[in-house]
Amino acid sequence: MFEVIVLAVALSMDAFAVSIGLGAKDNTRGLGLKAGIFFGVFQGLMPFIGYLGGKGAAGWFDAYAHQIAFGLLALIGAKMIYEGLQEGIEKDIAAITNKMMLLLSIATSIDAMAAGFSLTLLNVNVYLACFIIGVTTFLFSWAGVLIGKTSGTWLESRAEIFGGTVLILMGIKVLLF
Fold this sequence. Notes:
Elements: H1 2-25, H2 31-61, H3 65-85, H4 98-115, H5 126-151, H6 156-176
Helix pairs in contact: 1-2, 1-4, 1-5, 1-6, 2-4, 2-5, 3-6
């Protein structure tokens, strides 16, 4: 279960970083709750889709499952680190609408779908794991908006770099153990 919590925190860093940017941009009252719900639902749903895909294709690549999981987690981690070193898309957002939140939720959770494959290698209840990922992302997104309101975006890129590093380390653990 420890791996699921670490995975949940790492996957939520993308949404956390975006939420900080949103909070720095817009100070509406319900934005924290809105970001938490949108990001939490998608971050909880996408790993389940990845898990189902991993289970469906497990017979084809069973001998290489650990290497594939490592590759996916390392790529996702490297992508998050790269994005953490780049300028955020939040600066280009004109208005925070439900449509924009939906697009941001999908964009930040695509990585979680790929990481969901690694759930096939862990001996965990996938429903509980996805719930934990969703709740963790909800909490980090809500907190991100609040942090963004008070501190601006200085923490935004650091969160993505941290999340990417944790995913790479998890990939190494899957590969070696």
